[in-house]
Amino acid sequence: MRILILNPNTTAGVTDLLVAAARPVAGPATRIVATTAPRGVPYISTRGEALIGGAIALETLAEQHSEVDAAIIAAFGDPGLFAARELFDIPVIGMSEAAMLTACMLGQRFSIITFAAALGSWYRDCVDMHGLWGRCAGIRSLDESFGPVADVQVEKEAMLVALANRAVQEDDADVVILAGAPLAGLAAKVRDRIPVPLVDPIAAAVKQAEALVALNPRKATVGTFRRPAAKPTTGLGDALAARIEMRDLPEAAE
Amino acid sequence: MRILILNPNTTAGVTDLLVAAARPVAGPATRIVATTAPRGVPYISTRGEALIGGAIALETLAEQHSEVDAAIIAAFGDPGLFAARELFDIPVIGMSEAAMLTACMLGQRFSIITFAAALGSWYRDCVDMHGLWGRCAGIRSLDESFGPVADVQVEKEAMLVALANRAVQEDDADVVILAGAPLAGLAAKVRDRIPVPLVDPIAAAVKQAEALVALNPRKATVGTFRRPAAKPTTGLGDALAARIEMRDLPEAAE
Amino acid sequence: MRILILNPNTTAGVTDLLVAAARPVAGPATRIVATTAPRGVPYISTRGEALIGGAIALETLAEQHSEVDAAIIAAFGDPGLFAARELFDIPVIGMSEAAMLTACMLGQRFSIITFAAALGSWYRDCVDMHGLWGRCAGIRSLDESFGPVADVQVEKEAMLVALANRAVQEDDADVVILAGAPLAGLAAKVRDRIPVPLVDPIAAAVKQAEALVALNPRKATVGTFRRPAAKPTTGLGDALAARIEMRDLPEAAE
Amino acid sequence: MRILILNPNTTAGVTDLLVAAARPVAGPATRIVATTAPRGVPYISTRGEALIGGAIALETLAEQHSEVDAAIIAAFGDPGLFAARELFDIPVIGMSEAAMLTACMLGQRFSIITFAAALGSWYRDCVDMHGLWGRCAGIRSLDESFGPVADVQVEKEAMLVALANRAVQEDDADVVILAGAPLAGLAAKVRDRIPVPLVDPIAAAVKQAEALVALNPRKATVGTFRRPAAKPTTGLGDALAARIEMRDLPEAAE
Amino acid sequence: MRILILNPNTTAGVTDLLVAAARPVAGPATRIVATTAPRGVPYISTRGEALIGGAIALETLAEQHSEVDAAIIAAFGDPGLFAARELFDIPVIGMSEAAMLTACMLGQRFSIITFAAALGSWYRDCVDMHGLWGRCAGIRSLDESFGPVADVQVEKEAMLVALANRAVQEDDADVVILAGAPLAGLAAKVRDRIPVPLVDPIAAAVKQAEALVALNPRKATVGTFRRPAAKPTTGLGDALAARIEMRDLPEAAE
Amino acid sequence: MRILILNPNTTAGVTDLLVAAARPVAGPATRIVATTAPRGVPYISTRGEALIGGAIALETLAEQHSEVDAAIIAAFGDPGLFAARELFDIPVIGMSEAAMLTACMLGQRFSIITFAAALGSWYRDCVDMHGLWGRCAGIRSLDESFGPVADVQVEKEAMLVALANRAVQEDDADVVILAGAPLAGLAAKVRDRIPVPLVDPIAAAVKQAEALVALNPRKATVGTFRRPAAKPTTGLGDALAARIEMRDLPEAAE
């Protein structure tokens, strides 16, 4: 099966980190493909950037969805996730969603650890969006400036480990999620230095994408996750306009 | 003061309805100006369209925010609202937010009535986003096809009144919100046929915009609603890119 | 329009503060009138005093409601609010309700700051009563003795500003409400010393009262906010007894 | 021990029903005494009447608290309960509180059944006030006119039994509370006609009052349930004023 | 009446403490009988031990229920409570349930204080199970090793008092529950050193058991707390198997 | 990898159904092994049976955990799940947990459909236990008698499909879970007759077990999911006693 890792940020170095963390856990029949947002910001960290990044994720999916079996929206706040799940027929998984749901099977309450304070409120909205506050022990973030985002996991490794340990000690976290695409792969490195299970969101997302493809659920044809009826559009990107206007139907038997 | 009604849909006829419902309640010193989305869909009714419409609302605000004292995002689900509140310095009010908060002062629990079943889940997300389920008696919508969206309030008037009365009788609604931009102005017409207070969202939004302008709150300079630090962008519309990159600062002392 | 500020405390000096803070934000067509409770305690700060003050607020409204277009119950815990909304035909707004709902439009989560620890539990009940915990970042109060209540905002200004800043830093408050009638007017004075939007409850209440009068909602004739059917009473004040017994109906065409 | 049943309504016939239902379950060492509100309305059924009745309950307790070991506020919505718990040193129990807490030990979810639709919203507020929605399967009420309130349990017996059975069948109630002072004693009569445990609120309240007296908890001296510090009052009833002003302290060693 | 204190732990010394704390509050007509689990662990402090202890509590009740009027499951987390309430006809009360419900009548929010950190998560689950988080100010536990569990209340008295005082000061607890069977009787000893009402769970449970026996509720015959229909079993203890298979029915007219 | 399907019921025919539904979705490297409870009841459907079944599941895991890479507790209410997760070092997945978490990735709200009304309250407790009410659109069950439990999915197929369709139409379910071990495999058969994605709990559980094994999380060594310290036991089964007493440590390097 082909699984698309869609990085809604414009930083290709982060996409590389995601792919590097995804491949070791992928099954033998899985082929990981990846794409970096052609438009947007280097690293989404505000509500506005998440909104813009979500709309761009839809454009990218409109172009690539028919070539893959499932897609992962690979930014921790899951920009555009529910919209994508509505508009496309393949399973679409959010990296934060996969991380949190996987964490639920490893304890009762998870903590989310990240590297930038600006991400806090966006992540809080994300826990809300998935209805998982009852399982969340807290969100903790560093509040330090940092260099290139693709290097932040190396630069801040010791501080992130310390923060995770505080979440375990002070917030009674049963599980720790090391959140944010730039931290992809960090969990494997620091596994022995945090005394509870760690979740690497992109790794969790790959396994969840594989699970959904194997379970092969049907696309809804009624309710709010069915594909919306065709509607005219103005000024949108070609592929997305075609998808919304259902101009793709003749050529694709989805 | 100048208040911008930003219709994130592309249907100018709906903008006209909004302006017509707004002007009678505006104060003598208020000038209502309006804009219709240059891109997008005729009428937002799905998660995907709300996401796209929200991003377009940011583009429009980037172009026009410096010429008005406050802006209203005039689609019931408030697409892009929190992002706009973060990115711009003027008060930005959502039409659904204004309707629900105003309804809170007229009873304990409000019902939301609308004309298309597809809007239900989007409105549900909207009540969630504002943390107001504790005040919501329910959401009810017609489930009938309809003609041009700008005419739907005329076409379905009797059915909408009946639906509102059922919300009062069966859901114990203390207040009824007639929701959706195409219903702008309907509340005034049917006031005597529904035995509880009605809220017209655009009318409520105008009064809330006036209130915020009069109260003149400062823009946050810390926390998650401060204006984000400058960040490079790729491929975004000019005005929005300039706002995010802070290229507008020299010319504007906001 | 005439808006009544009803101070349910017996301290006239606090009424003066309220009026002074209300007038600058009132619209040109608004006439602010005020009344101080003839019975009760100098400053409500316990559950028992709130209950007594709420009953006295009903008596006062029974005497004065027909001469004004809207009334504000001007103590932060909104004593008697829902009862007044049920019993009278004009819009009745609570000062805490107006403050919290207005704050909702300026961020996601507000903090309430006040000057006496005894108020904490009463305010907590008040957030509960309005179903707004999901929007509240916390309640913080000074825990110091103070002199005359009408002077407390001068006496404690620096400490209140410091407390508000802690709410922003430690509780991630997006907005700060300076709560309690004796703090009326303080927000305008300390605006530049707290880095997020401030809400002055009486100012917010005036604008919300004006908004409701302009929107002109009908009084409910069914449901729990309709005027209750006439009922005999024993030993109540004349005007309140008349209102409950509907002896006012012949002379007043409400 | 002496337990005071305080009926905050002015109908002595309801007080008689309460006493008649209380005595059979009281322990051998318990003496039931009762009082009917000297002021107010014949039967509290609205928010305004509850507020007025709560204030009158405080007056009555101020007069009688020193002669009893515990008091029961004997109207289902518990008017004035938390205020009384704060202001007086003896245990004060609410009839609805006692009913709901007792019901919690007889199943997981209770339903509240009553005889007048007007009571619904007041009871809903009451479940809220006690934080017990998670245990409540619903509130159902008759919607019929009725004769003298002290006779309503006889007049409507068959309809109330039918309503209770619907709550069991349709709402999955594990326990049924027959709520409202005028229904005191009904549970014992219809026990065999409803297939789940019934709770008679006044009976539950008597046992809870006895339990608290036997457990002999101390009065708080810190926190929000300590007795408030002395405060001047204006125009209140003598006993209540004395209690608030702490003029009772010389003569009573509470 | 006969009330069974069922200690689901195997430590007879703890049973002795429970009986000693129960007898002084029991009414004159109450006979306290007690039993110690014949199988299991000396002191339940984990999820697994609670599960095992709950199943053993069912076995013990199957053997003894017909000889008593009510039973108390006397470990703070209430192991097996709802199952016992379903399977047997007598009232079955949980010690934590009784403590929390009683505490609700002494203030708005209670804190739970205990002696071992391992108990924290089990107690948290217990508050959840009873739907009482809205009334809980927090759970605090010592994190120290201790000697024989039956002596822990003596060994740690000063530290437990200090912890309770911190709950009052820092968490605004209105009431304190001294939780865990090994602390039975401690509340009476330290009453004067904690400035809010204390609840001793076994004392509360005795009074609640007496209350339920006096109220004499019927056993449900429909719904999920009716006695389940007879079902075959394999390999269970004799008395429990007989109860589930309804082999006890010929000899007992329950 | 070896995955154990642990059926906590004593009906081997249900184990066969589970294995038959599990194998088609298992990966090529997965070996499914299964065990049927040696003690207990043919089909768990009450709180008491779930408690007993949970304790038996611990006994079975104590005997078999060291021979497998992960275990699935294969009854919908997840009896003993959190206890097993605490006591053993391998991943332990609940069938209902896996179903609900998987459903979360296929829509916003799932409905649970089952074949016996008695299961309703147990399933409700199960949604509670996982903190997932915010994602649950409802639980619906047949209320009909049925023949042998292993045949119920054939006997009731049409009625279950109708019930699922009602959940979609009336409860707005985005996803339907066909719950209960006896329904294993049904989802695949009726896929085309229900217009939203279906989840077969055992299939979901197999994929989640594979995911956790691949992600290889460490066992907690602090917090409440670490393995509890050794403790003496009395009268428990040999393997479980050894596990709790840590007598297994010499021979097993877990």
Automatic annotation (TrEMBL), chains A, B, C, D, E, F:
InterPro entries the UniProt entry points to: Asp/Glu/hydantoin_racemase, Hydantoin_racemase-like, Iso_Racemase_Enz_sf
Signal peptide annotation: none
One MF term in the entry's GO annotations: amino-acid racemase activity
Pfam families membership: Asp_Glu_race (PF01177)
Gene3D superfamilies in UniProt: 3.40.50.12500
Family to which the UniProt record says this protein belongs: Belongs to the HyuE racemase family.
Record's protein name: Asp/Glu/hydantoin racemase
